[in-house]
């Protein structure tokens, strides 16, 4: 009978330490030789099984679905093969023998109910193990955050010192961050203008991407991390990383967002735009130009995710008097 071998460790760190994958392969190869099984494929994985969708595991399932003759799966033990329910169900759908070598168990659709029951309990135990491990990881990250250490990848302008387990300033990137806060904090420039100004002043975002993306720049300018503190899931933590800007600079930048966002350029300056409201419905009166004609629109609101005109609109002749003074527009609209 032909067989495939599946070997897995929980993390890349385990693979680097070398205490699992080679040992599993040796054990499974020897088992195949003793039992006259022909190994046709090897699948090795060094990823977490917290989530389904492991690359090598998926490749193995696709291969088994595509072969015409029966194949069996050789694996060290239960928690090496699956550690979540979806993987368990996906394997159940295959008419394939599973050899759990260290447990001396062979499972198939023809296995006795008692054997399947015991196997199901082991799957639940494996699932409980990974859930417990996840909880412990979260606790560790929370404790690290409480101590002032950011438990994730440091943002642009900083770097993670893996050996010292601290976050340090990236001297090459930090000036970019500081200049970005200075420019935008003036309230005189938009995000697009700041992007271009940084590039013109010789600040390179990344070697392969000299000009920062607008979304990345906005996220940077709204990240309190650069003040020396950080927020995780809405909770504030006092950080120990060196600040790149002061809290006052950060607050000034946040206020600038409110000012700059309101400074929208318009092709036509309609007098009293945004100030007039309809005497009947109370909604705003605004203007539009469509194909050379001026429209006055009342009560433009959002309905069902789309803009809809409540009180209607009127076409008006394009003239300097109409653009400079709102009163002819209002009188025409009110008089029908």
What does this structure look like?
With 336 residues, the protein is of the alpha/beta class. 40% of the residues lie in helices and 21% in strands. It has helices at residues 12-17, 21-34, 55-66, 78-81, 85-92, 113-146, 174-185, 191-200, 214-221, 247-260, 320-324, 327-334, and strands at 2-9, 38-46, 71-75, 97-100, 105-107, 158-161, 166-169, 230-232, 235-237, 285-290, 293-303, 306-316. It has a five-stranded mixed beta sheet, with helices on both faces. It has a three-stranded antiparallel beta sheet with strand order 10-11-12, covered by helices on one side. Strands 6-7 form a two-stranded antiparallel ribbon. The longest helix has 34 residues, at 113-146.
Key traits:
40% helix, single chain, five-stranded mixed beta sheet, alpha/beta, 336 residues, Rossmann fold, three-stranded antiparallel beta sheet, Hect, E3 ligase catalytic domain fold
